[in-house]
Amino acid sequence: MTEFTKTLCPYCGVGCGLEVSPPAQLAKPTNRDSQGNPIWRVRGDKAHPSSKGMVCVKGATIAESLDKNRLHYPMVRDSLDQEFRRVSWDEVFNIITQRIQTIRSNQGSEAICMYGSGQFQTEDYYIAQKLLKGCLGTNNFDANSRLCMSSAVSGYIQSFGSDGPPCCYEDLDLTDCAFLIGTNTAECHPIVFNRLVKHHKKNRHVKMIVVDPRRTPTAEAADLHLAIRPGTDIDLMNGMAHLLMRWNYIDIGFIDECTSNFSEYAEVIRHYPPEVAARQCGISIEDLETAARYWGESQRVLSLWSMGVNQSSEGTAKVRTIINLHLMTGQIGKPGAGPFSLTGQPNAMGGREAGGLAHLLPGYRLVKNPQHRAEVEQFWGLEPGRISPHPGLTAWDMITGLENDAVGLLWIAATNPAVSMPDLERTKKALWRSPLTIYQDAYYPTETSAYAHILLPAAQWSEKTGVMTNSERTVTLCQAFRQPPREAKADWEIFAEVGRRLGFEKEFAFANSSQVYAEFVQLTGDRLCDMTGISHEQLQINGPTQWPHPKQGSGEWG
């Protein structure tokens, strides 16, 4: 019988479960790709609660990229106009630690930055936070999630006091009204969209509203497509709020008991009567009224948004405006309803749990909060005050820091900023100025490797065992199903070895990723994202698990 290894698709935040079998067990084991590499078989995991066996074309073909253009060995060069030379891990670790020590002595730890990725597993994220924010005392860790998810993070924190989407995929099967804004879900999150469309077609009373200036495949399936003028999302939602309040589609009891500052909000939306809002948005008053009526008459409203909201110049404000619609109508905290941010990367959620942005600490803590800093310092065995009270440099701040010589070392891992950052010409010029760039990736060459002084070969998702959390807070163990090529190492192992060589042996005395995760979850106890009841072993036995999931005896979830 063919043995399949269970893992998770590493492409987006939907987190489709995959099963992978080795080439040797295929009917034709000699099948190979164009580069002569064996082809792995991939199929959807029917037992995975989030995707139920469904997988999109990216997930179905993911194995094709496993062996292409891999980086196999550490390489270094003294300047960007030189060729790379191969070195041993021992030599490259010595170079890195010596440079870090020199920079700390000459410029301070604030000159050290790391730019990570939503492609990290949670263990990678956690060790990076412990190294930089704890042992080195700098909060200069940010991730490419800054470019996609940070608006959702800030919106949730400002509205609810904490990050964490209050919805799950089951809500797609229960909602009466789906409000999609700033997302072409049909093409970017097809598994989510297909599940929603099935529910929509099966239940005639269910309404789907799509807000998008373009006529996308998502908009084609909508009952109402609002092709608003770009940048007028807030005008639209405030116009809907005006009508909801005028027509008394608001939940006074919920507002009084569960919210604050409604009177100030009511004063704002008073200035968005339908004739004003419709004119600003470039839509008809009738369409605006229809949208408000669909929302107001529904028992369960689910809003979905993605990069069209999060990546806009007023992304956080737009997220809060979406949430405000839910709060004023009591459309939250019940099945089929709530504000649901669709995560763009496979483990952007896990990164937020582990503190993987410049203003965060593990367990959904904030670096500005003195109690939060003290809790993490005590847990890590650090002296009080070691963690900086100031948010670190964000992804773009790191680029400008290279321009003004404030950054002495930039460590990039699992992302390719030379093609993904805004203002690419400025980004490339800044990278060219970098005194030292460490680039840690699975592939070579890439656009960013042209700006690196040190290359570190990283293991891919298929070659390391670790945890990822998807959009609906479901934690999945992604099990390695092959060995890393040549000398590639897991990201967390690289960070941990640098930490040990810097003198923090006991802080990084981990034998495997299971031990790393076991330490991390202790920092989630009594937090919104409590995962103290989750371990690699538990996930292997029981399968994917949604948080909160406290340890038995510590909470009602058991």
TrEMBL record:
<dbReference type="GO" id="GO:0046872">
    <property type="term" value="F:metal ion binding"/>
</dbReference>
<keyword id="KW-0560">Oxidoreductase</keyword>
<dbReference type="InterPro" id="IPR050123">
    <property type="entry name" value="Prok_molybdopt-oxidoreductase"/>
</dbReference>
<dbReference type="Pfam" id="PF00384">
    <property type="entry name" value="Molybdopterin"/>
</dbReference>
<dbReference type="Pfam" id="PF04879">
    <property type="entry name" value="Molybdop_Fe4S4"/>
</dbReference>
<dbReference type="GO" id="GO:0016491">
    <property type="term" value="F:oxidoreductase activity"/>
</dbReference>
<dbReference type="InterPro" id="IPR006656">
    <property type="entry name" value="Mopterin_OxRdtase"/>
</dbReference>
<keyword id="KW-0408">Iron</keyword>
<protein>
    <submittedName>
        <fullName>Nitrate reductase catalytic subunit</fullName>
    </submittedName>
</protein>
<keyword id="KW-0411">Iron-sulfur</keyword>
<dbReference type="InterPro" id="IPR006963">
    <property type="entry name" value="Mopterin_OxRdtase_4Fe-4S_dom"/>
</dbReference>
<feature type="domain" description="4Fe-4S Mo/W bis-MGD-type">
    <location>
        <begin position="2"/>
        <end position="70"/>
    </location>
</feature>
<feature type="region of interest" description="Disordered">
    <location>
        <begin position="24"/>
        <end position="51"/>
    </location>
</feature>
<dbReference type="GO" id="GO:0016020">
    <property type="term" value="C:membrane"/>
</dbReference>
<dbReference type="GO" id="GO:0051539">
    <property type="term" value="F:4 iron, 4 sulfur cluster binding"/>
</dbReference>
<keyword id="KW-0479">Metal-binding</keyword>
<keyword id="KW-0004">4Fe-4S</keyword>
<dbReference type="InterPro" id="IPR027467">
    <property type="entry name" value="MopterinOxRdtase_cofactor_BS"/>
</dbReference>
